[in-house]
Write a structure and sequence with these properties.
Blueprint: H1 2-12, H2 22-36, H3 43-57, H4 70-90, H5 100-110, H6 117-130, H7 135-138, H8 141-156, H9 174-189, H10 195-233, H11 253-266, H12 311-335, H13 338-396
Helix pairs in contact: 1-2, 2-4, 5-6, 5-8, 6-8, 8-9, 11-13
């Protein structure tokens, strides 16, 4: 029982009663303590014992639990999960040392008070009651045993050697004895708790925790959606100037021309060409400007016979095509002036600058995300180290002292 109490206190020193059910953890602690002390018990016996105690507390007629029903199966699975969770949080460090033997050794060998049964029994009772407090999480078993003997001797008005003090042989001071005895005496002043009120308070805290958790999850989802909208459609609910639907200021005709030229430079020209959608080469026909692949010409008629074209028809068609091509080239060359070429170059430079700035922003965002991840990892590591130190101090500090 003492082992189970210490394991229970160690678990809830790190975890919360609101998130983890105390009944499941208590059953798991007893089940694990029976294995540690080499007196294993079945899960069915532990669950049946808790079920009987609960019925007696509620003033009901005790009835055995149905081992074939869903309630037993559910409780069994919960206890197994709680045992795994307890071992994981303790880091499989389940070594426990008690001050029972230390009390008897000190009273019999050092103080020669083994015949005083009242003093032995009172110190033993104080030690058993201290298991219900957090004393074992803060002090070593030697210090707790010395404090129990010191307190029982004060109550029974028995003089113990003070020059030199007897408790200093076990690395204990007077201040530590007083602090431990105060915590034990304060425990007797606490009124007996009402289980129903405690369960109501825990359930209310659990509901508040779940509401807060759901609210945080919703806020995170909303932020993600807003970021997606901003990245996809340049929509921002905070800055309406970035929205597409917001009214745009009027522009002069020169600035409008420059904007169009910059868009053409960014997209590589209209209709997929670099020179503003106009072809400059001699060998490309204007027909291929709209379709990259020209349709195949028919070489046969509907009866399957080869077509015969006269030389005059082919020559006339080629002349017409050349004239059209020359006229379009002249029109395009007249429209392209020296001023438009300079404006297009300036627009291209502006577009390149914008792209460079966007790349810088993306790189800065990635760096910030990496820094945040590193900080979170460091926090988790510090928590784990603190937890391991607490467990080591509670179970392993007394090894080099009793020699």
């Amino acid at each position: 029982m003492a082992t189970a109490q210490i394991l229970f206190h160690r678990f809830y020193l790190v975890k919360s009663l609101v998130i983890h059910n105390y009944e499941h953890q208590a059953m798991a602690a007893i089940f694990l303590a029976a294995k540690i002390e080499e007196h294993p018990r079945r899960i069915r016996d532990v669950i049946n014992c808790f079920h009987h105690i609960k019925q007696v507390k509620d003033k009901k007629t005790p009835s055995p639990l149905d081992f074939t029903g869903t309630l037993y199966v559910k409780q069994k699975n919960d206890v197994i999960k709680a045992e795994r969770r307890l071992l994981k949080e303790l880091g499989f460090c389940v070594h426990v040392k008690y001050p029972h033997k230390i009390i008897i050794i000190i009273l019999s060998l050092m103080l020669e008070q083994s015949q005083n049964t009242e003093l032995v029994q009172l110190s033993w009772n104080f030690m058993n009651d201290s298991l219900r407090s957090d004393v074992f999480m803060r002090y070593t078993p030697d210090q707790i045993g010395c404090a129990c003997i010191w307190l029982s001797a004060r109550i029974k008005k028995i003089c113990l050697p003070e020059n030199p003090p007897w408790y200093e042989l076990l690395d204990c001071t007077r201040d530590q004895c007083e602090e431990i005895s105060k915590t034990i005496l304060n425990f007797y002043c606490i009124p007996r708790p009402n289980a129903e009120k405690l369960e109501r308070a825990i359930n209310a805290a659990k509901e508040a925790y779940e509401l807060k958790k759901s609210f945080n999850e919703k806020s995170k989802r909303d932020l993600k959606e807003v970021k997606k909208l901003e990245s996809a459609s340049n929509f921002s609910p905070i800055d309406p100037s970035k929205n597409k639907d917001s009214p745009k200021p009027k522009m002069s005709p020169g600035s409008m021309i420059n904007n169009k030229l910059s868009k053409l430079a960014e997209n590589g020209g209209s209709e997929g060409h670099k020179n503003g959608g106009v072809r400059r080469s001699k060998h490309h026909s204007p027909r291929r400007r709209y379709s990259p692949v020209s349709p195949p010409r028919r070489k046969h008629d509907r009866y399957g016979r080869k077509k015969r074209r006269s030389s005059s028809d082919s020559e006339s068609n080629s002349l017409v095509r050349k004239r059209k091509h020359r006229s379009k080239r002249r029109a395009s060359s007249s429209s392209d002036d020296s001023s438009s070429s300079t404006d297009s170059e300036a627009a291209r430079e502006e577009a390149r600058k914008r792209k460079h700035e966007e790349k810088k922003k993306l790189a800065d965002q990635r760096k910030l995300q990496e820094k945040i991840k590193l900080l979170e990892k460091e926090k988790e590591r510090s928590k784990k180290e603190k937890h391991e130190k607490i467990l080591r101090d509670s179970g392993k500090e007394h090894r080099h002292k009793v020699r």
